[in-house]
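Q: Got a minute? One more chain.
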Amino acid sequence: MNRWDLLTWISIVVLGVGSVAIFAFFLRDVGGILKGGGGKKD
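A: Always. Here it is, folded:
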């Protein structure tokens, strides 16, 4: 495996994990967003 293959796989993992994390944050706040509350307010 050369350097470019390794960088490609690292990029794929970073993009995948980032997408899942953003989706998880959205799902956590979706109830408040749909009700017009703008998400959690601390």
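A: The helical segments are 3-34.
Q: Perfect, thanks.
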